[in-house]
Amino acid sequence: MTVLTWVVDRQRLSSIAHSRHPIAAPVSGVNVNRLLRRAGREPTARILDLGCGDAAWAMQALAHYPDGHADGVDLNSHVLERAAVAAEGRGLADRLTLHERDARSYVPDGDYDLVLCVGATHIFDGFAGTLRQAGRHVNADGILLVGEAFWQVPPTPAALAALDVKPGDYTDLAGLVDAAEHDGWTPVYAHVSDAEEWNDYEWSWVGSLTGWGLDNPGHPEAAEVLAVARAHREGWLRGYRDVLGFATLVLRRATNSAG
Ligand SMILES: C[S@@+](CC[C@H](N)C(=O)[O-])C[C@H]1O[C@@H](n2cnc3c(N)ncnc32)[C@H](O)[C@@H]1O
């Protein structure tokens, strides 16, 4: 979230940064499971994860829906390679199909019982675009699960600078619900990340990069990796900490197929 001119390969940097926290959002494993339970799909659920990253959400969803199948879509070949290895290790490779492509132009061969887009709404230009573009893949009685940032308090100049965003790029929590209802969705559950989840996420991100830089002192990119970690930490601690929130909403269509 910090503005820097990076020379280091961004995909590799992101891989290192997320190595200790495969969910690339401030949501704990316990709460991932709670959200998936609340999604309440059948064991045979068809699942789509847009901007899946390491496919940690998709794989955990498959643990909840033991006869289900998931499609994960991401542009980043590095994360998809890691996802494939993890799926193999968890015995899920035959139930997870990974697609290296732009989620905006993904054309599935049917609709889904559960569509996930967590920490990846930028793909669709924000929350409203995600409701429309990810939502079109959800079947009539299906669930759209979206993880999105919001302003916990009115944004400060330091937070805006650290995140390189404008005040209007996010709403407050009530505004997220309003936007969902405006587009015909209604939350049947939501999780708001707490301070401990933010701490774990941010310190894992910063700590993984810092550890890598210290472990590889002769590497040509080590100094830059350390600088990225430091700048990110500063941006969080002095900028958006306790200002930016993160909510994961479990959404259903406001009018279901039964009318
Ligand atoms: C912050 S990560 C979130 C990953 C995952 N949803 C999670 O919560 O762990 C955002 C992901 O979106 C992917 N991404 C960005 N633009 C994309 C696009 N146009 N199509 C597909 N994936 C994209 C990135 O490669 C990255 O893996």
Automatic annotation (TrEMBL):
The keyword Transferase applies. SUPFAM superfamilies: S-adenosyl-L-methionine-dependent methyltransferases. One of its GO terms (molecular function) is methyltransferase activity. InterPro entries: Methyltransf_25, SAM-dependent_MTases_sf. GO terms for biological process: methylation. Residues 47-142 form the Methyltransferase domain. Keywords: Methyltransferase, Transferase. This is Methyltransferase family protein.
